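ok trying this again, last paste got cut off
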Amino acid sequence: MKVIVLILGLLLVTVSPASAQLVVVTWQFEGEADGFTIYWGDLESPTVTYNGTVKDGTAREYAVEANRFIPQHTYRFQMESYNGTGSSGPSNIFDYLHDVTAYEPPEDNLPPAVEVPEIPPPPAGMEVGGISIQYVPIKTEGVK
């Protein structure tokens, strides 16, 4: 029976200001595998767990969007490799503190109200291109 040792590490990567942040799980692995299954959960909510599968035995990383993690919560990661004969059993455990500050939107710098100037009515009558236009105000009093 061959013992497979997986070493987990986490790295928080910002791809660029306009793109999503990622939490990238990386590992070292020696042996033959068809793929890997990564398990993780929030230590503050132990009944909620997640998993992801990497169907590439040569892969050595797995990226998770950072918005799936709650700021200032600790997550526990563990993984297994698998091939046609079964799985390796669980790897060592790695705890990761998602040490980021929650997003705070900028303050609203708009004025509380925008004043719209009163627009004077058009002249009582005018002619445009040989057509006579007559302004007739609409009465709204008593209309519901």
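PB: full thing came through this time. The radius of gyration is 32 Å.
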